[in-house]
Amino acid sequence: MTAQHLQSTVVLNNGVHMPWFGLGVFKVEEGSELIEAVKQAIAHGYRSIDTAAIYGNESGVGQAIAEALKENNLKREDLFVTSKVWNEDLGYEETLAAYETSLNKLGLEYLDLYLIHWPKAGKYKGAWKAMEELYKAGRVKAIGVSNFQIHHLEDLMQDAEVKPVINQVEYHPRLTQVDLKAFCENNGIQFEAWSPLMQGQLLDNPVLTEIATAKGKSVAQVILRWDLQNGVITIPKSTKEKRIVENSSIFDFELFNDEMDRISALNEDVRVGPDPDNFDF
């Protein structure tokens, strides 16, 4: 079912409700710009914030969340906060320690979602055991993965006691990952898009421009709407209030089936990020 408004949620495979739409803070440095962006997003109705240890901005995100909760008369449980364990911390003991570090920096008592950032060979199963322990102890509401391909997921689930709720991957009209998306759907793993706007590389695409003009919307809004109508959670990044509001103003129009198909046909299997099978940080 397509999200009806900014705070609409999808029910993950463990029963946890996660907003369809959120704010990503990839490459936003610590400081006033980051804090203001997160606060503006929450003030304008966003309820999901996505960060990661490697972004180096968990402290700022935590400060912004604390201030925004007070300023908007919200409770911690009104927000859905995601972070990720980085490659060098994959492994059982390392992941347990990394989780505590992230929590401390964020100033939170729990995370709503904790992800393995990349499927580093030989490392992610130990990390998953640690995450399962955190989950079973109620320290985190849900656990999942990021950038996992089908063979990574199959390998992980051979031994896993808890199935990942999410696979957060690069996903946009030029990288639709059809087979991976179908595998996740068939296994009850929710698909989530990072870099949904392809870091701005799609904003002058003629097909998208034509559809956006017909809808009276921006190209970014059309792409983000396409995400949601495809059943994909999306977390676009912006630090500008105007863009934060614009990105979320996608619930007052709908793309027709032929428009959805035209956008999907733009796929060329082109990445702006690393290939998970050849990423060895």
Shape: globular
Per DSSP, the total helix count is 10
**Main β-sheet description:** 8 strands, parallel
**Secondary-structure arrangement, i.e. CATH architecture:** Alpha-Beta Barrel
Gyration radius, in Å:
18 Å
Can you give the helix content as a percent range?
25-40%
What's the number of domains? 1
Explain how this protein is built:
By secondary structure, this protein is of the alpha/beta class. The protein has a single domain, classed as TIM Barrel (Alpha-Beta Barrel). The chain is 39% helix and 13% strand. The protein has helices at 32-43, 58-71, 92-106, 124-136, 150-159, 178-186, 206-215, 219-229, 241-248, 257-264, and strands spanning 9-11, 17-19, 23-24, 48-50, 80-85, 113-116, 143-146, 166-170, 190-194, 233-234. The strands form 2 sheets. It has an 8-stranded parallel sheet. Strands 1-2 form a two-stranded antiparallel sheet. Helix 5 links the parallel strand 7 and strand 8. The model has no long low-confidence stretch (mean pLDDT 97). The active site is at 55 (proton donor). Belongs to the aldo/keto reductase family. Residues 32-268 form the NADP-dependent oxidoreductase domain. GO terms for molecular function: oxidoreductase activity.
